[in-house]
Amino acid sequence: MTMPSERTRALRWGGEFLNELLAADNIGADLKAEVANILMHYPSEGQIRAWAASWPEEPFSTWLAPEEELSKEKADPMNPSADQAPNLPDIPTGAPSDRASALRLAGKLFARIRSGHNLTAEQKRSVLYVLRHYPGASDIGFYALI
Fold this sequence. Notes:
Elements: H1 4-23, H2 29-39, H3 45-53, H4 96-113, H5 121-133, H6 137-143
Helix pairs in contact: 1-2, 1-3, 1-5, 2-4, 4-5, 4-6
């Protein structure tokens, strides 16, 4: 079962990975254009954290929650710097429907490229980390519009 804080982290990691892909020189122009299109409305790290912090705490309906602080014992041994991600700039994300669309498109992109598209070994590992708790398209459609 995915915890709300893990979902929040997956959304944040997704944005970071999209920014890394946009700067990468090993992917084609068509994939870069798709990533740039998604990033136009993908929420920034600050927006994701604010969204999670403002989510109402109700039993069985909390979808996002602030990320738990990772201690040395709980830190992911495969990704030791995951809790020290760089701050991404806050960008306008448009209407909630635009944000939901960007999140859904990103999820589809992550699933599609996880084993191909000339990704480096590190990029393949990163996309698997994102997909571990990234919400499904139906979840995003319902909760992003709330």
